[in-house]
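Ligand: adenosine-5'-diphosphate. Inputs:
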Amino acid sequence: MVTESPMPSAVGAGSRERAGRIGRRARPRSPDAGVTRGEIIQAILALVCGVAIFAVDTFTPLGSAVAVLYGIVVMLASGVSHGWQLVRLAYVCILLTVTSYLLVHGVSYGTAPFLRFIVSLSAIFIATALVLRNQASNEALRAQAALLDLTHDAIFTRSLEDRIAFWNRGAEELYGCPAAEALGASPHQLLHTEDTADVPAISAELLRAGHWEGELTHRRRDGAQVVVASRWAVRYDESGRPVEILESNTDITNRKRADAELRRSEARYRAIFEGARVGIWSADYTGVKARLNELLAAGELAGPCAPEIAAHARTAEGFMPDLLGRITDIEVNDALVRMSGARDRADLIARVDQMLAPEATAPFSGLLQALVGQDVAYEAETPFRTFAGEPLPTWMSVAITRSDGRDRLLITVTDLRPRRHAEEALARAREDLAHANRLATFGEFTATIAHEVNQPLAAISANGAAALRWLDRPEPQLGETRAALERIIRDGRRASEIVAGIRGMLKKSDPQYARLDIPQLIDDVARLVQRELQARGATLKVRTAPDLPAVRGDHVQLQQVLINLLINGAQAMAGTPGPRTLEVNAELADDEHVLVQVRDSGAGISEENMGRLFGAFFTTKPDGMGMGLAICRSTVEAHGGRIWAERPDGPGALIAFSLPTAQAAAA
Ligand code: ADP
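Predicted complex:
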């Protein structure tokens, strides 16, 4: 006879055999499913019993209520017959009982056999009813067990003696362990619950509170680790004694892995954020964008572009502070705090409006344009101010991300002060070098300079002597004297011009950018180097295009460029046979550039040296420094121009440079 009570309440007695039965019965099996061997035996037994009872009841003179035993037939048949089948069997048993009674006793009432007959019929009826009720509850149980198998969670029950009594399909799948193997085993040994879980403590807590939940690490049958969210609950019997424990485990291995990866990536991001040497400002600008759109819709803001936003910022008081107040969820790193001179992060966030120098309005407006215009990035040089009020030139780079209707900006701020200092130091070093180069060049020119200055001085002396002679005449020749005095004045001016020019070249002063006439510049240089060139047997030929536009530059620096090129040219021609001609040609390269070429008829430049002429310290001269062309290049480039060497057809070398016209430089 089947006596199991519904699952999971049926489990709990703790015996392995009992638990095994329940575990197996928990598999959902419809009544129509194939019958087991045990059930066939039961059916045969039922048939044999039925036949035997009929025979004994009908053909033996036993006066007892043998037909009562038909109830056992019904019970035995319950394994293979269900519902109406069982009812029909009960009818057969009743029919057999009636038949036996009529055959043995005929139609008689009120006798003792008749009473036994009634008792037998009642027994068949009661047994059938009980079996039907039991079958119905078993069906409900099967349905519940089938439900437990539908879930992906691993669900099992275990006795208080720690033996598994029920093991659902989810558990089979999660742990890779069939129910047949799991049933009766200790779950913590079977699943290798990790030592980190204090199972005795958990069990104690479970018995105290009636339930427990937490995370456990188990091992599958194949050795792989699984992390589960585990919920334990105690089932009590009617008297309140704990009977068994229901454990439900949800596999969270992948979620844990994803969580761990997320945490790792967050930690990485945090480390970058905190450790970055650039300042970082990350914040939610959704409110700022909404406000700008409101102003645009209301027509208060003329347009969504940076110039219009900047114009509005200049005229509408409180516009910028209002926008800054709408930035939320702000995160800043220490580098930005240090850069700004704020006390701490909170101080920086609270007073960030003080960093917005008036000059920062334009780049900040560009950022707002990018925000409203759905751009994803923006960058600009932005002059902020430190909290101490000092200029803070920066490069601001903005990445805009949009998700869930929110606009988040990640702004990196690079402090340009160290770079500016380095640039200034570099410019100073370049000027010092150029100055040293000029001194060195003029050192070589001393004879020329002496001659240049001497010439007008000698002329002044001669004219002075002549003037005196004209005056000493019995009849002073005033006209001649006047002419001599005029020449003295002219030569005096000339001498002082030469001295001023040389002083200008030798004096160390900051570059003075002004409009410069290239033909005039060439003329000045030609006068300075004329004698030097003559001494080297070189003839200078200058050709300048008419109406050449002016360039913008420093007179002394550009003179130095030309002097270096001319002296190099003259040196390259030293010792070469034939006429030594230095040609200087100035013309318009294109609408925006003036081109100056210096060509000599010297030894020329080898292919190999072409690429390194302008490098510092490259020289082929025994007493050369190798800085002349390097200085020419840095000077020309500082003027926004370009310098290069060419190997012209025929002898010699050609060094050319181009400079932007004053108009182009101003644009
Ligand atoms: P330095 O005159 O001290 O050598 P520069 O930088 O002025 O330094 O010149 C570097 C080198 O370039 C020279 O040593 C020379 O080899 C080459 N060079 C410069 N100008 C010419 C030229 N006009 N013709 C041939 N070689 C030249």
